[in-house]
């Protein structure tokens, strides 16, 4: 019998059977077929515990949601204290918590004027697109091939065919896609001067963190200015100190018109996201502030947690730790490339954002993910390029855990070779 507070299951298989019956059959089957039988029970810091008690070091972080760790004690206490005073709040009225978080976000985001809140990243992307359309009086949106910006109505239309066609959400006449790092293709998309905005993750996460070429992001911004489009920086996975700067666009010296943040802003405890807009993009807030409404967007409990998150991320010791972890991972990966270069072929890194390349099989990172899982490390492969493993250390990770991670990585490689060999024979 497995007891999760008010929830009980006879066995792990009993749980899986019910997940397939009542929740999501395809997802449940997929992970079992991949050899990942994880059902998260206890979670603390950068550690997950399977419902059977097995410990895993979390390098997935649910896309950066657990940037500061699972159930960070300071954030848990912040939320508990907030419950003595706050609830979701009322979206119609000015709010102390909402205003405080908005001020905090604008203060760490040069060029931004207002913060507009939503429950999740996709909804914040929708706000960003609507704001750009308001400001430019244009409709078309440019994004990159293999980009990812969430699953709501406007957001999903910017993404990969996998997520649009199944729901009849592909709109190629309005949502135009170009290859990443191809500045000529970008200019062709923008030169008609009928595009409202370019939206792009500073480093595309679901595509496996391909790094922007030198000058590419600045060139994209210059083209937006030349052709009257707005530049939306999706910082859902690259923001909040993960590049070594508060925002990835700061690390690359680019000034967006709109910034989207989510995931880690919640502290992993209460859903919240925001679209940060400059004065022009936020003009509609002066014309009709009720043009966009979200009952739970900017829920006051989430604002209290988010305010603490921003405060924590600015602490000198945390900023220094990001630099330390960045250097450690860079050196450790150089050593692993020498030791395991037959299957491990490259590293993409900016701060604590890493994509590890296993290019000798189209789904190489899927097998590496399983081998690491068996060694007690959870790192997920990139959905849109399964040769690449997403490797996302937390910003508070300590040296001892970093060393443990790399020891386990080293130990997992023989099993990864075995799984890759089996896959090669099967194909």
From TrEMBL:
PROSITE patterns documented for this protein: AA_TRANSFER_CLASS_3 (PS00600)
Homology family: Belongs to the class-III pyridoxal-phosphate-dependent aminotransferase family.
Top-level taxon in the UniProt lineage: Bacteria
Keyword 4Fe-4S appears in the UniProt entry: no
The protein, known as: Ornithine--oxo-acid aminotransferase
Record key words, sorted: Amino-acid biosynthesis, Aminotransferase, Arginine biosynthesis, Pyridoxal phosphate, Transferase
Species lineage: Bacteria, Pseudomonadati, Pseudomonadota, Alphaproteobacteria, Hyphomicrobiales
GO function terms (MF aspect): identical protein binding; pyridoxal phosphate binding; transaminase activity
Organism per entry: Rhizobium loti
Gene Ontology terms: biological process: L-arginine biosynthetic process
Entries under InterPro entries matching the protein: Aminotrans_3, Aminotrans_3_PPA_site, Class-III_PLP-dep_AT, PyrdxlP-dep_Trfase, PyrdxlP-dep_Trfase_major, PyrdxlP-dep_Trfase_small
Cofactor: pyridoxal 5'-phosphate
Coiled-coil regions, chain positions: none
